[in-house]
Write a structure and sequence with these properties.
Elements (H helix, E strand, L loop, with lengths): L1 H18 L11 H26 L3 H4 L2 H4 L5 H11 L6 H32 L19 E2 L7 H16 L6 H14 L3 E3 L2 E2 L2 E4 L6 E11 L9 E10 L3 H15 L2 H8 L4 H9 L13
Parallel strand pairs: 1-5, 3-6, 4-6
Antiparallel strand pairs: 2-3, 5-6
Length: 293
């Protein structure tokens, strides 16, 4: 939080110091070179951003808007100018020309870029979502579909391994996680009925409550109260220091997965991205509310 408070001041100083190197007298004679660099920068942002989006996500709304949101990013360009200026092997005239072209272009992008970023965020459906939610782990990277399992113990093991891997947790072993979950599962089933189970574990430590979702299209026997096989497994792991928030998270998870419309979309979702969209698109906001509200 303290670094976030300093960020505006640091960025202001950074771009101010970069801007003092612009020689306004030379800008008028750099039309062709500046135009070429501007075109290359635009092409690089759109080609690189779009390619990265296609490699990183299956969400069309993100793929179509990610490139525009990268336009004002200029830290690397300015950093390269600083490196160029500190290299004595490069002639001063060349350094001055490149510096003016790059910094003048950066100024244009910093002026025109932010409104385009706002538009891209709005079109992607991500506006006003920069706050922490009660359930943060129902994201594309924490969903596995289909989850193939022979029985509920196999499903628990596979989902526990996937959850630790997707969250990058290394100080909690899979065996400890499974032991905690199986201890609860043997005393009473975590199946809620309607094809839903929410196995959960307490872990010794961790930055926050984490979880993962597995969609078993064939269904797994969890000894559910209604006798139906479980198709939707949401696994939750709560560090001991976050026990007070545990019940809130569990209640929010139950609200989300209890919605019949959400379950109907999840079961036919071909990819984790489609499953995430099924949760996010038509879900009432109060199901997974923002903590600041």
């Amino acid at each position: 939080p303290s670094l976030e408070n300093l960020e505006p001041m640091l960025l202001t100083c950074f771009f101010t110091l970069a801007g003092v190197d612009i020689d306004l007298k030379k800008l008028s004679v750099m039309g062709l070179l500046g135009g070429v660099y501007l075109a290359c920068r635009l092409s690089g942002k759109f080609i690189g951003g779009t390619a990265g989006a296609f490699l990183g996500t299956d969400l069309p709304r993100i793929r179509q808007n990610i490139a525009m949101s990268l336009l004002p990013h200029a830290g690397l360009a300015i950093g390269l100018v600083v490196i160029l200026q500190s290299d004595p092997r490069i002639p001063t005239e060349v350094t001055s020309t490149i510096t003016n072209v790059v910094l003048a272009t950066v100024v244009l992008f910093e002026i025109g870029g932010p409104p385009l970023v706002r538009q891209a965020i709005s079109r992607a459906g991500e506006s006003h979502k920069d706050r922490k939610r009660i359930v943060e782990f129902l994201q594309e990277e924490h969903i596995i579909t289909p989850l193939e399992a022979d029985d509920k113990w196999d499903a628990i093991r596979k989902l526990a391994e996937f959850m630790l891997k997707s969250h990058g947790i290394k100080d909690v072993s899979v065996e400890d996680m499974i032991e905690s979950i199986e201890e609860r599962e043997r005393s009473i089933t975590t199946a809620m009925g309607s094809g839903v189970a929410i196995p959960h574990a307490k872990i010794s430590s961790g930055p926050e409550i984490m979880g993962a979702m597995g969609i078993c299209k064939k269904g797994v026997d969890f000894e559910a109260p209604d006798g139906q096989p479980v198709q939707f497994i949401i696994m939750v792991a709560t560090p001991r220091e976050h026990q007070k928030q545990h019940l809130q998270v569990m209640a929010a998870v139950a609200r989300i997965i209890s919605d019949p419309m959400v379950r109907a979309k999840l079961i036919v979702a071909p990819t984790p991205a489609a499953a995430y969209e099924a949760i996010e698109s038509d879900l009432p906001e109060y199901y997974n509310y923002f903590l600041e509200d």
